[in-house]
Design brief:
about 130 residues; alpha+beta; Endonuclease, Chain A; four-stranded mixed sheet; globular
């Protein structure tokens, strides 16, 4: 089965590589729980370019982006930017889950459970493996 290709601005490739090599503390911590198909057997990628944007984590099979929002998302009118950005990406059939960095640090198990619940409710073929 071929996976859907999402268009992206090629100039974002270097920026995405930089972000993968220099993750925020929350991204680095959360990646330990996503990498290696740990959540319901699905393959997630870090810092995935989609259109003119880069999402924190992305699973092609689920068409799911996971974003971790730190303080920068609260400052400088970023909530409106984030909402508009998310709407544009969702027009391509991609779903979003958003978590605050503090949620990840305070109770990562609840965040993981919310991701698993979304997968259980929305995965077209069900979980691959546990």
């Amino acid at each position: 089965m071929s996976r859907k290709i999402y268009p992206y601005k090629k100039s974002l490739t270097e920026r995405a590589r930089y972000l993968r090599n220099n993750p925020t503390t929350a991204e680095k911590f959360f990646w330990e729980f996503l990498k290696g198909d740990q959540i319901r057997g699905y393959d997630f990628h870090r810092q995935k370019p989609i259109m003119n944007f880069i999402v924190d984590f992305f699973c092609h099979e689920l068409e799911l982006a996971i974003e971790l929002d730190g303080s920068v998302h609260v400052e400088f009118d970023n909530p409106e930017y984030d909402k508009a950005r998310q709407q544009l990406i969702e027009e391509h059939g991609i779903h979003f889950l958003r978590f605050r960095n503090q949620e990840v640090f305070d109770d990562v198990n609840t965040v993981i459970r919310k991701v698993e619940e979304w997968i259980d409710a929305n995965a077209k073929k069900g979980p691959l493996k546990k």
